[in-house]
Design goal:
The complex is a heterodimer of chains A (179) and B (130). Chain A has 179 residues and is of the alpha+beta class. Chain A has helices spanning 4-17, 49-54, 71-81, 115-125, 146-153, 161-178, and strands spanning 22-30, 35-42, 85-91, 95-103, 130-136, 141-145.
């Protein structure tokens, strides 16, 4: 995976498959404590304790089309290479929370990449779901909330390509003011 | 520095679009729109499926094609990622493999616009691991 936005796309796809209706992503950049944290929270179907124990195993997957499940294992490896960690909590019928911490200054930490594109693609493909993306740095905070966007759009579908292109540019410009 | 886009600007854009969209929504049912599903599992993302999906969305907006671009999970064709499934109204779905941005462009121009089949189609295979 080339950058964090690709990992983010991958992890949120798991939430989509778990039939979540709300996915929250919080990115916190803390240069003073040298931490770059990604926090994913969904209200999907959750996992049993047995599944939860095997989730970082690359040879374990809930899919039937193939026998490997690399998403979480690759992300965990990336985090641990920078001296960070990956933790997951889940409860069946409630949802799952995943927290990944990287060392901010470490050269092995992947760059954020095109997060605006990732959010746009997720929102466009899943217009019935809600996403809450919050990004905090020392410069400021940006919040992208699909609930607000849907209110403004008053019924116009979020999967319209013109709207998606606009949302991507909006997220990109706002993120650049705080990074 | 240019003014940063906000939700207020989105509202104005929506109003502009709405008049164009009303016409389109009254005539189109979802079945009459082209459906493009981009494989977006770990294998897909690692091979660049994000750029391909992004390209389809921007091209649909620019070229005025009424398409629903969405993502799907692993279709099992990990060796040929990025893969896309195109469903033209009234026709069977076709899966294309090794779709980079250049081939995506070709698929839009040749298959979606003219119905001409392009190289790189993955034939239907009904075997699964189960």
């Amino acid at each position: 995976m080339r950058d964090l936005s690709e990992h983010i796309m991958d992890i949120i796809q798991n939430s989509v498959r778990a039939n979540a209706t709300l996915v929250e992503l919080e990115i916190s950049e803390n240069v003073t404590e040298d931490k770059y944290t990604l926090l994913f929270k969904d209200n999907g179907c959750g996992m049993s304790q047995e599944v939860l124990a095997k989730v970082a195993d690359p040879f374990f997957t809930s899919r039937t089309t193939r026998k490997v499940g690399l998403g979480i294992s690759l992300l965990k490896q990336n985090a641990e290479q920078t001296g960070g960690s990956l933790n997951i909590w889940s409860e069946e019928g409630v949802g799952t929370t995943l927290e990944v911490v990287f060392s901010h200054s470490n050269i092995d930490r992947p760059v954020l990449g095109n997060i605006a594109e990732t959010m746009m693609l997720l929102v466009g493909a899943n217009p019935e779901m809600d996403f809450l993306y919050k990004h905090t740095t020392l410069e400021g905070e940006y919040v992208f909330d699909t609930k607000e966007v849907k209110e403004v759009l008053e019924g116009v579908s979020l999967s319209d390509p013109n709207i998606l292109v606009y949302l991507k540019e909006m997220i990109n410009e706002n993120i650049r003011t705080i990074i | 520095m240019a003014k940063v886009k906000s939700l207020a600007d989105l509202k104005k854009m929506k109003e502009n679009l709405q008049s164009k969209m009303d016409l389109r929504e009254k005539s189109d049912a979802p079945d009459s729109m082209v459906q493009v599903k981009v494989g977006m599992a770990t294998c897909g993302i690692a091979s660049g499926a994000k750029e391909v999906m992004n390209f389809f969305i921007e091209a649909s907006a620019k070229r005025g094609i009424s398409a629903v671009v969405t993502q799907t999970g692993c279709m099992g064709y990990c060796y040929a990622e990025p893969t896309i499934e195109v469903i033209m109204p009234g026709k069977d779905p076709i899966v294309f493999g090794d779709v980079d941005v250049k081939r995506a462009d070709e698929i839009i121009e040749k298959y979606i616009k003219n119905g001409e089949l392009v190289d790189g189609i993955i034939p239907v295979n009904y075997n699964t691991i189960d």
